[in-house]
Amino acid sequence: MTVAPGSFGHWLRYLPVLPSGTAVHLYNGQLKDPQTVHAAVLNIDVGTRDLQQCADAVIRLRAEYEFSQKPDQVHFHLTSGDDIRFADWYRGQGFRVSGDKVLPAPKTVEQPTHAVFRRYLDQIFTYAGTLSLARELSPAPLTNVQPGDVFIRGGSPGHAVLVLDVAEHLTTGRRYVLLAQSYMPAQQIHVLRNPDVSGSAWFAVDPDKPRFDTPEWVFKREELRRF
Known about the structure:
Number of strands: 14
Protein name: DUF4846 domain-containing protein
Pfam family, one: DUF4846
Radius of gyration: 18 Å
Order of helices and strands: HEHEEHEEHHEEEEEEEEE
Largest sheet: 8 strands, antiparallel
Oligomer: single chain
């Protein structure tokens, strides 16, 4: 499908991937179990802590896109509902969590470099998740699925899978989606493999079905959201 230059969907199309056959590793270097659900691994760090899980991977990719466009527009809500802006954070307005409260905590003023941005994201990953991300996104109809949309179920457990790209059959109009996820424990973001179609990473979209199956999670068709 056509995507507008400069859009999130256009940016996602140019994400780098590691060589074919690369295994998915956890944050601690161990192998993901199983190794049968991925078609490719994105060339993007997972960090050294158990933070960049499912919703965090979606946040990471959206944040990287926004950082590449205009760093000061990056912001995400914590599970508490508090909106933490990167611009405030690097300018010295940090925070600390005490029980259920998020309190101001002055920090060193820094420049908006990517290394500083990456530390900001680890703070977001620690206190955000599927519940907060689901609240940030708007419902989207499965019939009109777009690159950059998110299948998400907020909760504990919950899960989130990002729509990397969308293709549409020229004759039937049926849509097919390319999907990416992280999982628990934190692991490299990977493109999902369709277990029902040998050698394929594309998943057919059937809006008439009440559910949408992915290799490690089943979503309801109403659980598609959009930034």
